[in-house]
Amino acid sequence: MHSVSLIAPGKINLDLEIIGDRPDGYHSLIMILQSIKLADKILLHPNGTDLLRVTCHHREVPSNQDNLAYKAAALMQKEFPSLGANYGGLDIIIEKHLPVAAGLAGGSADAAAVLVGINLMWDLGLTQPEIEELAAKFGSDIPFCVGGGTAIATGRGEKLDSITPLDHLWLVLAKYRSITVSTPWAYKTYRSVFGHTYINEPASLASPTAHIHSRPLVKAIQQKNAAEIGKLLHNDLEKVVLPEFPKINQLRETCQNAGGLGTMMSGSGPSVFTLCASETEAEAIQQQVRAKIPDPDLELWVTQLCSHGIQVISHPKH
Ligand code: ATP
């Protein structure tokens, strides 16, 4: 068995709408998810033992069974026990480039890379939908991270419908290193404040998703209308996160005032992004935001949207 190296891109939400509660306790969502070029690198290496071991030098990322990449490998061993026993353990080496706990699905991307990598290493021949089905067993963002690109996600985020991939736009990502927002807290608070607006009948839950392709943002994406896409960015979780975290709110305003096509918080935050028409524009906005907020706690990145999910960069058999 050979080693495999993979690229695991992060994601932003161009749209995040909370529709209601589901009988399984999750929220029913409509999201438009978009891969970005900023990515982790994952190396899977047979270690000659029967153990799974994770190495990641980022201090906020667990190197034990709590790591989502570990959980993905353990899931594969459970689903395919005889192959797992036959091929033995793996070292999972995570080179972290994606900011952690940032609403960019870093952990989910790493887990998706492990599923794709083990599929190759064990010659399983699973198709992308089959890998996505396995991914849905332990995380709502993981199925999207497998194929990536641009997709409408419904259900709890695991039902995917790929649309015209957007890869011509750039973005500035901004995040305070020391601020973390708990995703469960954000959804729980949203429920307590906006729960009265929820659609809870199982039959009615289907109706907002019925005409999803005729939504203005989906049409703008299909027409690659950058100005419209920028205007139509939306995230319901801003309604609870921004009032609670004034620094994120102020960062969002600073980014928005610096220009670009549109600014929005990604997922449950704390990352904020400004969509830009070009790399030059993104770099100019990055500089302006840095000049307005010279706080060393503020991290900024310029990256591009991308049209793919997990990519295999080296696998000697192929
Ligand atoms: P979510 O929205 O699911 O909370 P996120 O995209 O905001 O995720 P992640 O970077 O995935 O944030 O990290 C969330 C938490 O998951 C971190 O606090 C970290 O301790 C834990 N974690 C587990 N495995 C990983 C991993 N491989 N990479 C990053 N974080 C991980």
TrEMBL record:
The molecular function GO annotations come to: 4-(cytidine 5'-diphospho)-2-C-methyl-D-erythritol kinase activity; ATP binding
Keywords of the record, alphabetical order, are: ATP-binding, Isoprene biosynthesis, Kinase, Nucleotide-binding, Transferase
- Give the Enzyme Commission number: 2.7.1.148
**What InterPro entries does this protein map onto?**
GHMP_kinase_C_dom, GHMP_kinase_C_sf, GHMP_kinase_N_dom, IspE, Ribosomal_Su5_D2-typ_SF, Ribsml_uS5_D2-typ_fold_subgr
Superkingdom in the source lineage: Bacteria
Q: Which GO terms describe its biological process?
A: isopentenyl diphosphate biosynthetic process, methylerythritol 4-phosphate pathway; terpenoid biosynthetic process
Which SUPFAM superfamilies does UniProt cross-reference here?
GHMP Kinase, C-terminal domain, Ribosomal protein S5 domain 2-like
Q: What class of enzyme is it?
A: transferase
Instruction: Show the catalytic activity.
Output: 4-CDP-2-C-methyl-D-erythritol + ATP = 4-CDP-2-C-methyl-D-erythritol 2-phosphate + ADP + H(+)
**Pathway, per Swiss-Prot/TrEMBL?**
Isoprenoid biosynthesis; isopentenyl diphosphate biosynthesis via DXP pathway; isopentenyl diphosphate from 1-deoxy-D-xylulose 5-phosphate: step 3/6
The residues covered by the GHMP kinase C-terminal domain are 217-293
A Pfam family that the UniProt record links to this protein:
GHMP_kinases_C
- Please report the stretch or stretches of sequence annotated as the GHMP kinase N-terminal domain: 67-149
Q: Where does ATP bind?
A: 99-109
State the active site: 11, 141
- Extract the PANTHER family matched here: 4-DIPHOSPHOCYTIDYL-2-C-METHYL-D-ERYTHRITOL KINASE, CHLOROPLASTIC
Relate the protein's function as given in its record: Catalyzes the phosphorylation of the position 2 hydroxy group of 4-diphosphocytidyl-2C-methyl-D-erythritol.
Q: Which family does it belong to?
A: Belongs to the GHMP kinase family. IspE subfamily.
What is this protein's record name? Answer: 4-diphosphocytidyl-2-C-methyl-D-erythritol kinase
